[in-house]
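In the previous chapter we treated chains in isolation. Here, by contrast, the input contains two separate entities that must be folded as one system, with a combined length of 776 residues.
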Amino acid sequence: MKKILFITLIVCVFALSACNPSQDTESGETDTITEGETSDIESEMEEADEGEADEVEEESVWDFNADPVTISVLSFFSTDDLSVEQSVVDAFAEAYPNINVEYDNLAFGDYFDFLVTNIAGGVVPDVMAMNFEQGARFAAMGALEDLTPYIEAENYNLDKYFTSTVDMHRHEGIQSGLPATFSIVVNFINKDLFDEAGIAYPDETWVWEDLIAAAKEMTKDIDGDGIIDQFGYIAGWWPNFVFQNGAQIINDEGRCGLNTPEAIEGLQIYVDITLDSEQKIAPDRSELNDAGDWDRFQGGSVAIIPTGPWAITPFKENIGDSFEWDVAPFTSINEPSTLMYGNSYTMSSTSEQKAAAWEFIKFATGERGSTLRQSGGYEISPIREIATSDFISSLNGVPENAHYILDATSYATLPCAHPLWQEMHDIIWPELEMALQGTKSVEDAMSTACQAVDALLEEYGY
Amino acid sequence: MRNFIIFRKKENKKNTSLKKFSKSDMFWGYSFIAPSILSFLIFNFIAIIASFLISFTDWRLIASPNFVGLANYQKLFTDPVFPKAMINTAIYTFFSVPLGVFMALLLAVVLNQKIRGLPFFRVLYYTPAISSSVAVAMVWMWIYSTDYGILNYILGLFGISPVDWLNNTKTVLLAVSTVSIWKDLGFKIIILLAALQDVPKDMIEAAEIDGAGWWKRLTHITMPLISPAIFFVSVTGFISAIQSMDLVYNMRFEQDGGPARATTTMAFYIYQVAFSYLRMGYGTTLAIIMFLVILIITYIQWHVRKRFIYLESD
């Protein structure tokens, strides 16, 4: 039965795709940001602190007397509180009376499946929210309009954004979108556990050894049943262990960089701090299966968890008054590094209302849209001025040291944004999982993974 | 029918062959089967043909497809995940189906006795079959949990140290197929029970009078008479086990067919290739391989049935 349903689905999308005009996937020379590149945000941040605010209103070429048009907008922003992104859409509808917006919001987990099926069926939203990783893939498939001509035609001011938040949405020479939000991974700490252990809260001066020592102190089997109940640390997403030891997933030659000594050393630390009983400070894969990382932190049994500003609202709601928590800088193994992510609004290359879609993208990623989104506490605005003023004030003092999040922009790196990233990840991760279970050495795992990744890259001409 | 005949007689005057046909019994017969034939043609047959055609393209859903010949079929020989998925599916199927049929048979025989509270037990055994597989997965994930699971707790009482059932590459696939046995048991029991109740009482009694013991009666009368039902649950069991996807998908937090690809079954891999990597061409190629595997296994079963099934003639 499942097979029948599956095949039915395939044939449906196949039949419908015939109505979809063919798309030209040829692209110019590559101009993507390579992962591992340090962002230039901090200097800009300081600039914004001192400098004058840029002029808010852009010169619009939209004809407000034209016949009304309708555009469809699909987004995954602020699914925790739908009213946030809705307020951006409502404000746009008010400002542009002759553009009707059919707006839909989907949870991130379902978003891209839904989008792909719709694109295949020829029902493409005019404006789509995109994260920079998926943007690379959709751009490579020719689904996204290059916004460069629109920007040039109006001389649209991109200086108001942090440069790297704009650049991270440039894929294979295409400016696929304008930045709507970005976020960055820092450490969130349980202050009560630090107080209890008599350890000072982490700050910029902390190095990896400090983190290990403190986390070791706070990793405990409280009730003595042989099961560790309290962990000092949570080992975050694996690419971070590659970057913070100065290695790359895809090297400058565009091939797998995980078999270098630096990458292996970084990942070995990931294995050791979860698996090795002597060095253990973080739950291993099976312990995380029993209770997830956020659940453990929110339950008060984790001292340090690396995660991003998207955690602030859920943490506020779920932790409440049960313990004191705060933000601290991300402590790296070797080279200061942490992961930075970004989302944008993009335009469909097959849209029939490109002018209106462009107006929406400008508005939703511009000062008005960004301010509304920021006041809802969804991630961080890529507009310098708003990030430095509104982001911190929107938090109402919790977490107290939220400025560490903005400070982290000085050492942030972009994770992998290759069009084949999903497939590469699914090659690398099963190998790494064997290392994390102790059934394979990191070196063997990464050498097997790299062979397969390189074969994949060659197969599709990268 | 009488009405149709009367109707036909009235209209009999103008006689073209089409009209004649439209008034015939055959016309009405075809009309009655048309809905299911049409839905088969539209939703199954055309779909099967289309996926066969798609398997010769590089279609990625978004851009238009290009013809690539046998490239997708060649990829089967170089793709390291494909043999792994085949082996996983084979382990899953050959573990869960024979054991599942055997247990269902055992329970059906027990439930066919005159014991107290029979309806209660029947409901009990059928409940998993109608439960949502997501709910089933959640419950069993708790049962299998390393530190807090009831299974490891019970094993602990016998001094067995905790096993990380769902995160160990050696145990995870059998752990998941055990759940599928449990979940599908109800359906199999219902079919077998119905067959058991169709076994004529007089035959059993006659054998009893002739001095056949309980075991003899079971193996020489009951089993042969319900063998078509056993055949049915085996064939459907094999087909659904080979296509299984829901439990391997839902019983892992990551929903990644892991750990380390240990639960990547064919159906899961097809899903991943087609909808996660957007490689419809290769995805349908894998689907066609799965189709052929099921076809071959069912064909073999169909042919060996004559040797084992009573009252079958071909």
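Confidence is low (pLDDT under 50) at residues 1-57 of chain A. Chain A touches chain B through 47 residues (CB under 8 Å). Compare these points with the single-chain example from earlier in the chapter.
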